[in-house]
Design goal:
CATH class: Alpha Beta
CATH superfamily: Gcn5-related N-acetyltransferase (GNAT)
Largest sheet: 5 strands, mixed
Number of helices: 2
Order of helices and strands: EEEEHEH
Strand content: 35-45%
Strand order of the largest sheet: 1-2-3-4-5
Radius of gyration: 13 Å
CATH topology: Aminopeptidase
Shape: globular
Distance between the termini: 26 Å
Structural class: alpha+beta
Number of domains: 1
Amino acid sequence: MTQTQIDVRHEPQRQRFVAVVDGHESIADYRLSGSQIDFNHTFVPDALRGRGIAEKLVREALAWARQEDYQIRASCWYVRKLLDD
């Protein structure tokens, strides 16, 4: 199995992190409220699941939020799962 190259970009104007792999967009959405950030939605198309894309997106998003000193909330179950790891 080949390793998928996953480049994540932050789109702060749309409050999301995005990875485009094989022409398909995967996203991790968030909402800012003062010093609090809520990661509320993560999506990876069916064709790309199982390749570590969601984990890469979320880990980069969480690293950014911590660097910016936001209080992190996760209404998305997948983000909660990674926070609990």
